[in-house]
Amino acid sequence: MTEYGEKLIEKYSVQTADLVLTILTLAPNTLFQEAYYNWQLIEEDPDDNKFVDVAIAAGADYLITNDSHFRVMKRLVFPKVNIVSLTDFLDMISED
After folding, report:
1. 28-34 long-range contacts, Cβ below 8 Å, gap at least 24?
2. What's the structural domain count of the chain?
3. pTM of the model
4. Is there a single domain that holds both residue 88 and residue 42?
5. What is the domain range of residue 7?
6. I want to staple 35 with a disulfide (CB 3.0 to 4.6 A). Which of 2, 21, 43, 53 is the partner?
7. How far apart are CA 88 and CA 62, in angstroms?
């Protein structure tokens, strides 16, 4: 949540970031997941590892990101984390 807040502040304002994080925290469809193991799979930007670790712990179907550092995940057989761009994900859900 901290990194989301930082990114929102970069583009908008502290007030907007606080509002978005509050909505995410209180939304009934938000699930909180603890990462139980640090896989350290993204060497190019180690700060991104927390997202992969949580996706693995949660058994997430997809990790949606446009960050190029996550491309390394496409080459790994284990642990498998399906990385998709936001555009690809929107295409997937609009097909229904």
Report:
1. 31/58, 33/57, 33/58
2. 2
3. 0.82
4. yes
5. 1-30
6. 53
7. 11
Q: What does the pLDDT look like over 68-79, one tens digit per residue?
A: 999 999 999 999
Q: What are residue 83's DSSP bridge partners?
A: 63
Mean pLDDT of the chain: 94
Same domain membership, residue 46 and residue 79: yes
Q: Which two tokens stand for residue 56?
A: 């693995």
Q: What pLDDT digit, counting tens, does each position of 24-51 carry?
A: 999 999 999 999 999 999 999 999 999 9
CB count within 10 Å of CB 17 equals 18
- The answer on 87 and 51 residing in a single domain is yes
- Quote the CA–CA distance of 96 and 86 in Å, as a whole number: 16
Same domain, 25 and 64: no
